[in-house]
Design brief:
Layout lengths: L3 E6 L4 H11 L4 E7 L8 H5 L8 E2 L2 H8 L3 E4 L3 H13 L3 E4 L6 H14 L2 E4 L5 H14 L5 E7 L9 H16 L4 H6 L15 E3 L2 E7 L5 E9 L2 E9 L6 H10 L5 E4 L2 H4 L1
Helix pairs in contact: 1-9, 4-5, 6-7
Length: 274
């Protein structure tokens, strides 16, 4: 059987370890390399809890991709390095599956141009949980009927960026529905009879296209989101909970298997699901 050769970047991190474990448990994927700035020289399998694999964690991504003949790089590193990592993969002709959040639209546009010119694909997904993608899909449908919404996202206290990529994408999807209906921010604000003010700046959260987004960072959480719609006399709440990082692995594996179907940037796992 021909398998897909995979390099995991950020292999010593919490998500990276889960990816290493998931890749080694399926027959159609082969882990050929692991990269990280931590745990250098240690066996990636031992770090991931699956036993020795004979693959040591290295630091030189470019050399690793070329030496191993990798076909797909999975990146779960950090916002400060992900752009360079993806461009390194593109230059090597390697497809990329990216779960690191914090990429700006300018970053995505630049990556899209580079990947398209090289003839490779890059899947960037703010959330790899199938349930989270369904939540966003349902939020789009609800937005057709509810002109008021707020988003609350809750993550572990080690997450560096706020709001989450999932919350931002959810807000963008909802705003796009409203825009298609010709409903702008002023229309929605005029329906409120109260002139709002904050006695504590930031109490109402951040705003994206007029949508309030609230971020919670506490130990005990993994990744959670509520999308709360309101109309007079009723509310509709959509909630998704990832209680372990294992929840993201079916989506990651799907991304690895299907990233070669496209050239340039594909933003969101939903593009593969629906």
């Amino acid at each position: 059987m021909t398998t897909i050769k995979v390099v995991v970047n950020g292999a010593a991190g919490k998500m990276g370890r889960e990816v290493v474990k998931a890749v080694t448990q399926v027959a159609d994927l082969t882990l050929v390399g692991a990269c990280d700035r931590a745990a250098v020289g240690e066996d990636a399998g031992t770090i991931a809890g699956v036993g020795p694999l004979g693959i040591k964690i290295e630091t030189g991504l470019e050399e690793l991709l070329e030496r191993t003949g990798a076909e797909v790089m999975v990146d779960f590193t950090e916002p400060g390095s992900v752009v360079n990592n993806v461009h390194t993969a593109i230059r090597a002709g390697v497809y990329a599956v990216v779960g690191t959040t914090g990429l700006s639209q300018a970053d995505l546009d630049e990556i899209d141009r580079a990947a398209s010119a090289k003839g490779v694909g890059v899947l960037v997904a703010p959330n790899f949980a199938i349930g989270a993608c369904l939540m966003m899909r349902f939020a789009e449908e609800a937005a057709r009927w509810f002109p008021h919404v707020e988003i609350i996202e809750l993550h572990h206290d080690q997450k560096k960026d706020a709001p989450s990529g999932t919350a931002l994408k959810t807000g963008q999807l909802i705003a796009k529905v409203w825009e298609s209906q010709g409903l702008d921010q002023d229309d929605r604000h005029r329906s409120r009879s109260v002139e709002e003010w904050e006695s504590l700046p930031g109490a109402r959260g951040g705003r994206l296209e007029g949508i309030h987004i609230h971020s919670v960072r506490l130990p005990g959480f993994v990744a959670h989101q509520e999308v709360i719609f309101g109309l007079p006399g009723q509310t509709l709440t959509l909630r998704h909970d990832s209680t372990s990082r294992e929840s993201f692995m079916p989506g990651v594996l799907m991304g690895i298997r299907r990233v070669k179907e496209n050239k340039g940037v594909l933003y969101g796992l939903d593009k593969l699901l629906f």
